[in-house]
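Reviewers of the previous submission asked for a worked example of the structure-prediction workflow described in the proposal, so we include one complete record here. The input consisted solely of the amino acid sequence. No template or homolog information was supplied to the procedure at any stage.
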Amino acid sequence: MLRKVRTENGWVRGFPAADPRITVFKGIPFAAPPVGKLRWHAPMPARDWDGTLECYEFAPMAMQYPIKADPNALYDREWHVDPDHPMSEDCLYLNIWTPAKTGDEKFPVMVWIFGGGLMCGYPSEMEFDGERIARRGVILVSINYRLNVFGFLCHPEITAESPEKPANFGHLDQQAGIQWVKRNIAAFGGDPDNITIFGQSAGGGSVLVQVASPQNKGLFQKAILQSSGGMLPPSSFAMNIREAEQQGVRLFKELGVKSLDEARMIDAKTVFEAAVTSGGGYQWGTVVGDPFLMDYPVNYFKYNTRNKVALMVGHTADEFPIVPQGNTIEELEEYAKRTFGEHADEYLALIKKGSTTLEEMKAKGTYNGFELGDVLLLDNNSKFETSDAYYYIFDPEIPGWDNPGAFHSSELWFVFETLAKCWRPFKGKHYDLARMMCNYWTNFAKSGDPNGLDADGTPMPEWKPYTKEQRGAMFFGDEPKMVGPNENEVFNFIREGYEKGYFDNRISNFAQRRRQNTPKKKDN
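From that input alone, the workflow returned the following structure tokens.
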């Protein structure tokens, strides 16, 4: 098995996974430590090393809130179980699971971008074990990136110092990790011309950003967006760089520093506490208006200027429902006027039809925002002659005393087929579903088509692409099956209204906002 590999910076040694046919390399540096003068700077090349780097342990997670491992908090008991996980600004490392024996195999490659609102998260979360993916003949790479104030601060001095890369350092870290894979993965038995990037939540939103960025042409061939928001936030809303710079000026005043050099000398914990835990109202996330991302990601999709890569898009059934506001019918009517303007009466007629109570009206008006964003993205994509796109909805029975439903992130155990690491009492049907979902994901990575055979050689249920004529989804309930489009009247009223620009100025007023807020810059 391939246990020792030469990278562009030096030799690395991995170790056998639980399945000894798979080799794991943990903590390979893909960029220089972003500390000192490299804090708030685009990632720089990793330094060379002598000898062989033993890649046996995960590197620290990026600066963020410490893990509390609170058993009363859903995500803590689900996977944030180790309060002693190391944390450091020095975090730009990646991990590889490879089935290669010689380094000449040219396996397809999947690059994982974790979620966490661009504020927290780490690639060494236990559900992200890549062994089951690698057993299917696909190399899995998970990359780390800077978060919160360390990944997304802007400031006029930073712009003056690095006008070509003044913002979005967390996204640039992701890009640098994928570029490292492109340059080095052949030595691990991978095909640098068959790369799929995938991520969930803010990781899915990051995948959308990477697909949008003009700088990534040819860098990867396929993309999987899990609970990314689609055509709704974060793809349709971000702070422009001039606003973000002024936020940075305000933070520097709070820190009591007069220059970028002084700010880079303050210890990381102090910076984090001032920028994140102080309650100062700072917003850390994707920025538009720099060369990496000149426009809102949604517009690259809306106007078909995104990188032309095959897409898989989907969400879970029970994540963050959008519920109408109001404790009385009068308040509900006011909510409708604020939200839907001159179309409020049409909305109210739909939710009142057949309803006798306020609760029934609000239930009728509730919808899954992630579903809406995905459908808008897929409908828009189907207007153009682009690569195939596949749509899924994840909604199996999730066991456990907390009765959580198909909550946000619950599909991660299934995509990585790591159910055995979870505390939940999963049964045979769950393991069957996880096996097939991992098959679909890796098949898509191999060829751009998720369809194929199950482990016993029988064909899995056919997953048809999402087109104008076929607006269907693969529904992952207790077993996979294709379903038609959502026929709910309220949902389609809102979907059609968004498409026409009626309801939300994050879509309808993009052109005006772009003219007002996005700085002029020469094309690269």
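The longest helix spans residues 428-447. We consider this example representative of the routine output the project will generate in years two and three.
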